[in-house]
Amino acid sequence: MDDQELIGLVQKGDEVAFGAIMAAYKDRIVNYLYQFTGDYQKAVELAQETFLRVFFKSKQYRPVAPLSSWIYAIASNLARTEMKRARKFAAVSLDDISAHEVRQKAYAVDPPDSGLIKNLREALDALHPRYRIPVVLKDMEGFSQEEIAQILKKPVGTIKARISRGRSFLRKKLEKALDEGGHPARA
Amino acid sequence: MSEWDIFKNLDTVKAPPDFEQRVMARLSLRRRMERRRQVALRWSMAGSFAALAAAAVLLNVFVFESKGPSAVADRGKGPAPSSAFVERAANESTVPIIETLDYRTEVRGRSSEPETMYLLEQISDTSPRGSDTRRF
């Protein structure tokens, strides 16, 4: 049974079909939200909310775009809202600080490639969501620019510009980190 | 191979094993809440309409009825009769018909009328004895 048939059944309230959709997309959505938030628990929570919205708003789905685009659009909106909320009520606990220090030490003794990944992660965290979402969708999830434009409901030209700017920002950050840290690995 | 394939080296995660059960539990909870919300909405709507109907009935009884039908009919023609008068009239066996009178239209000012000239004509040659006959 393909996605369109499954969502058709979900629109009639079929929980088995909903379970099938969830089984097909849960790992991708959790991973996408994890790359976005950097927090596994938060990513799982947001993914659960994403699937609940898929169920309750299934009647709003129109088969003009693939189901995956629609699910990613819901997840992206939730992630963006969560990031705005987190920025508004930014607070750092002592546990977070100590965990961050432990991670820093672990990265320091890791091989250079891990250092590059760590720098990439930090650069990605510093990237504004406006650019981060298209970059993650393009370079991690493998969507085309047209699909990302559909997901984010923006013109393709805007998406191209945002991906380009996002990558440019990441490149600068990585080069700066390499100059400071002396990691030899380059992408 | 693109330079941005480096992203594929980032650590990936998977959903926890009980992910589906947790979502289904939240789903049934949300459905129950939704059902309760719909029932509450239905009752509140019914209550609102009932309150509106009651307000309309009370308004009809205490506001429009107290003025009396003649007062409503004569609305705009002048001041309404006092409620005491209406109550007294209601106790009587006959039904009084009250019409507001506008004296401004009934009594005309003398100055506003054209002056009248009376012409007196003699209709007999004979005059009563002892009196003079005068010609006008």
Keywords:
heterodimer; A: 187 residues; mainly alpha; Rna Polymerase Sigma Factor, Chain: A; 2 domains; B: 136 residues
Write the layout of secondary structure elements.
The complex is a heterodimer of chains A (187) and B (136).
Chain A: H1 3-11, H2 15-37, H3 40-56, H4 67-88, H5 94-109, H6 112-126, H7 129-139, H8 145-152, H9 156-181
Helix pairs in contact in A: 1-2, 2-3, 2-4, 3-4, 4-8, 6-9, 7-9, 8-9
Chain B: H1 19-67, H2 69-73, H3 83-91, H4 103-106
Low-confidence stretches of chain B: none
Overall SS class of chain B: mainly alpha
Count of beta strands of chain A:
0
Secondary-structure content class of chain A: mainly alpha
CATH hierarchy, class of the largest domain in chain A = Mainly Alpha
Description:
The complex is a heterodimer of chains A (187) and B (136). Chain A is mostly helical and 187 residues long. Helices cover 79% and strands 0% of the residues of chain A. Chain A has two domains: 3-88, RNA polymerase sigma factor, region 2, helix turn helix motif (Rna Polymerase Sigma Factor, Chain: A); 114-181, Winged helix-like DNA-binding domain superfamily/Winged helix DNA-binding domain (Arc Repressor Mutant, subunit A). Chain B is mostly helical and 136 residues long. Chain B has a domain at 3-97. Helices cover 49% and strands 0% of the residues of chain B. Chain B is elongated, with a radius of gyration of 46 Å. Chains A and B meet through helix 2, helix 3 and helix 6 of A and helix 1 of B.
